[in-house]
User: Fold these one by one.
Assistant:
Number 1:
Amino acid sequence: MYKVCKFGGSSLANAEQIRKVCDIMLSDPSRRVMVVSAPGKRTREDTKVTDLLIALANARISGYDGAAELQDVLDRFGSIAAELELDAAIMADISLDMNTRLCQDCSNSLRFMDSIKAAGEDNCARLVAGYLKSIGRTASYVDPRVAGMFLTEEYGNAQVLPEAYPLLARLRQNPGISVFPGFFGYSKSGQVVTFSRGGSDITGSILAAATEAQTYENWTDVDSVYSVNPALISNPHPIMEITYDEMRELAYAGFTVLHEEALLPAYRKGIPVNIRNTNNPTARGTMIVRNRVNFDGVVTGIAGAKGFCSLNMSKYLMNREVGFALKVLQILADEQISFEHMPSGIDSLSIIMRKDYFTPDKEKIITGRLVAELGIEKVSVNRNLAIVIIVGEAMARTVGVTARAANALSKAGVNLEIINQGSSEISVMFGVREEYCNYAVKELYKEFFQR
Ligand code: ASP
């Protein structure tokens, strides 16, 4: 058995947490790769190391010396090293590493920012490997450049390059525990590049796929994934098993347990992802798998997300114009806008997009072109749209789920602006006004989980 384990920032926030995660690694000899985030918040008011590093990089980019910001970073690492009773040489290494990074040219601010941000994970991995060695265990810090974590040169939003996989597979030959810093890798030209925020989840998934691990364990601070956002419903139903597809749908509408891009590498290789709680390691957590065997209800999860808008258009005899939708989508593509859903009627079509992308400026250009180039007769934009989705593989085999959901929402007085069901039939999406979003989620939860 070979397992890759990723530990999030809250699992590494201080020495006590680091001891816990090392105990978790050591309690199962098949846990061979340990992907670490940067230390996270110790208390609600605390600041994550990554945010301290961003403040430091911004100070330097703006022409300040950033001495206070650098001290904050060194103090965080210093207090962890002291509590773990590590050799002073480790802090000297970390301090040297920080100074080397800061000596780099910051005229390319994105490149500089990524190099500084990556210091959180990189130095955390050095500390954790140092601690494991100090207690007599076989462990090593892995340098992502040497290991072959090659990424596209897209600062702050990198993607893994296919040639990284066979190189990373060599990790299996390392003895003991390999401590691998999450969140960043190197471009082919040797620059440090990071994934988007929360990207250590992606590192873990890539390493699980590359090493063909039996399981990718993602250790965080919740016992499981829940059927609904626990901020909306107290003691929500825990999900023991969920498919990649279901998880993807729920993540899309706001489930934030895993980074949105993190499932893909594991999904391609069919590696189960196990969400676990560092603070309650005996809980089995949630298994994310290709095919489910356990179904304890027709709906697996319910999610809602604000921040959407719809572009609605109609034209008499639209259905007879070959290639009409293609032309609409081409206009969106010309403006670099990706769309989310496209419900249609006989002579009408709506495009659902994220409001962040469909800015008022883009709206002006696009609606102008729709009228001028495609002869659209009526065009309107609704900027007050949230989407609420119910997700469940079992829905495809069950008659009446949409009716039950629509009925529950209508009884609750929620007007449905849009209804959309994909061909996979594992989710149904409702478009509602933003102010109804949380209320609609709660009503649907009552209908499917509390009756
Ligand atoms: N430390 C990075 C962040 O805060 C990456 C991660 O934790 O996954 O975004």
Note: The radius of gyration is 24 Å.
Number 2:
Amino acid sequence: MNLILLGPPGAGKGTQAQMLMEHYRIPQISTGDILRSAVKQGTPLGKQAKAFMDKGELVPDEVVIGIIDQRLREADCKNGFILDGFPRTTPQAEALETILAKIEKPLDHVVNIEVDSEELVRRLTGRRTCKNCGAMFHVAFHPPVKEDICDRCGGPLYQREDDREETIRTRLKEYEKQTAPLIRYYQDKKLLRSIQGIGGQNQIFEQIIRVFNAKSV
Ligand code: AMP
């Protein structure tokens, strides 16, 4: 199963990608996670990406395309993959098409998770992320058992620099301008499956599985 999860920041792509990963036993490939890890390690890639990320802007296309080109060739992508946060621009989508043609892994579905922007701001400003394992919590909707401590690994929770309100507004504008056109792009290719990203995470997951099954009959 070769998948893309599309949707604005805060739509729940990361959560759904993890659930799909467990269900289909295929890797979740999140450019945001790869970039954050590079920033944390202080690699040349991280140094290049940090300023863009802190401002809520997109990292240049050639940087993320290079990451994905390498990552998709790794052995664990043999039976499929879930792209989470890539592509985010039309040039990225076009480059992905070329890469997938080369490695003979055509896309099966592009899942578009729809959520309105005020709800996204509410979700993102309350979001807390574990510094160690990347697990996500929310101060109101999904609080950890112990304040500021990760339920999964005991690591410290923090608010991502780009989850502050002003940066969130920039990220949402970037999404509208650069990423939303991909909805049409994948609609034209008959790959788009839109679902409502409202409700519990299990409900949303069931919707996704339902659209896959409906399209594969
Ligand atoms: P995310 O965790 O997916 O919200 O990504 C966090 C940040 O990483 C974004 O705001 C961008 O600065 C950068 N980023 C992640 N994926 C991409 C991408 N496909 N293209 C450009 N920048 C990206």
Note: Residues 9, 31-32, 35, 52-53, 56-59, 64, 85-86, 88, 92, 162, 171 surround adenosine monophosphate (CB under 6 Å).
